[in-house]
Design goal:
The protein is built from 14 helices and twelve strands. With about 375 residues, the chain is α/β, with parallel strands linked by helices. It has two domains: about 5-135, no CATH class; about 140-385, Purple Acid Phosphatase, chain A, domain 2 (4-Layer Sandwich). The protein has a six-stranded mixed beta sheet with strand order 1-12-2-3-4-5. A hairpin with a 2-residue loop joins strand 10 (about 345-350) and strand 11. Helix 3 (about 55-60) runs antiparallel to helix 4 (about 65-105). GO terms for molecular function: hydrolase activity. This is Putative phosphohydrolase. Keywords: Hydrolase, Membrane, Transmembrane, Transmembrane helix.
């Protein structure tokens, strides 16, 4: 194994372990040590099982029963959200406590550090945040855009497109979530349906058992449904299997290829830029991929990650749809995605080039969203030469 990978893994476990120890220690000092008959050994055993359940489930999947694996994965996924907001609040309170030593602004000291009352308040606040985030993540909204492309599309004067990204079907996001999505899409009565990557999380076998192909087959659109791969299809090592499965489900995957739709407009699908890290095959550059494309017709591009926008701008792409960012998913991570991407959510215009980045429909890790909402992107395109 690559020594760098081993070193990164060791550092991750070290940092993750220290952060959880900090949360666990503060929890014991401020609240749980006050509970009668609860020993520190029992407390730490329960805490460590919860804190490391996601990691244990991922590393031991092949050795665990399906029920145990799914249970550990779900508990661990929710814990990641709890962990984040416990850290933010506890660190803030500890900083306030040390600042108070010099300024004497308020009294937050007590017999047990911050005191059991403050501990209860912190637990209630964090639980409230996560419960709201779970509710928010399960209530997607429809975000509508009206766009214009200054080209003729033959007999097609108007195109109604529904785009969805980052469903993350797998252990946590199940077929019932997809059924709801398909019903919402069909209610919009689109001409064309686009899936901009990360349709699956990692476990294709679990998806097959849920029979999601039957759900995809219920999609209705005159020009069909198309998809591109995202990074998670590659992370799970199931990229080619995902292509075959979607094809059986009536969704055509465009992997570094294009399709002339109704002799009126081009639909181009790029392979995800992370693919080369997993299969060693670098995706085609956009200029090579677009050889043979008639630039007088409208060009719509699907690329999972909204990166290297200079390429579609230079190659005359009219509209690009992307996902990947989740708009941060959990506050305050949107401040990171805003730094990483020129546009991490919404509409961007650069001359004749237009980009729409979706916050995604599903979630990765914790099925929780704070500071953003899941969405279905509803696009109405007018062709005005």
């Amino acid at each position: 194994m690559n020594p760098i990978v081993i070193l990164v893994g060791i550092l991750f476990f070290l940092v993750y372990g220290l952060l959880n120890f900090y949360i666990g220690l503060r929890g014991w000092q401020t609240l749980f040590s006050c509970i009668p008959l609860l020993s520190s050994k029992v407390y730490w055993a329960i805490f460590l099982i919860i804190a490391f359940s996601y990691i244990v489930s991922r590393l031991s999947e092949r050795f665990l029963s399906r029920v145990v694996y799914e249970g550990l994965t779900i508990v661990g996924a929710y814990w990641m959200a709890f962990m984040l907001y416990f850290l933010l609040i506890i660190i803030s309170l500890d900083l306030l406590k040390y600042l108070n030593r010099w300024l004497n602004l308020i009294s937050i000291e007590g017999k047990h550090g911050l005191g059991p009352i403050v501990g209860l308040i912190v637990c209630a606040v964090v639980a409230g945040i996560v419960v709201y985030g779970a509710w928010n993540a399960s209530h997607p909204r429809i975000h509508h855009y009206d766009l214009s492309i200054a080209k003729s599309a033959g007999s097609v004067h108007q195109l109604h497109v529904v785009m969805v990204s980052d469903i993350h079907l797998g252990t946590i996001i199940h077929n019932d979530h997809l059924i709801k999505l398909v019903d919402q899409i069909n209610e919009l009565r689109p001409d064309l349906i686009l899936f901009a990557g990360d349709v699956f999380d990692e476990d294709i076998e679990l998806v097959k058992k849920q029979q999601v192909a039957d759900t995809f087959l219920k999609l209705k659109a005159p020009y069909g449904a198309y998809a591109v791969l995202g990074n998670h299809e590659y992370i799970g090592g199931n990229a080619e299997e995902a292509i075959k499965y979607l094809d059986q489900a009536g969704v055509k995957v465009l992997k570094d290829s294009y399709q002339l739709v109704a002799d009126s407009f081009y639909l181009i699908g790029r392979d995800d830029m992370s693919g080369s890290r997993f299969n060693g095959d670098k995706r085609q550059d956009l200029k090579t991929l677009m050889q043979g494309v008639n630039h007088s017709l409208p060009i719509i591009l699907m690329d999972h990650q909204p990166s290297h926008l200079e390429e579609p701008v230079a190659q005359g792409v009219d509209l690009q749809v992307s996902g990947h960012t989740h708009s941060g998913q959990l506050f305050p991570f949107q401040f990171i995605t805003q730094r990483l991407f020129e546009q991490d959510w919404g509409l961007l215009r650069k001359g004749d080039f237009q980009l729409i980045v979706s916050s995604g429909y599903g979630t990765w890790g914790p099925p929780v969203r704070i500071g953003n909402t899941p969405e279905i992107v509803d696009i109405n395109i007018m062709f005005n030469p």
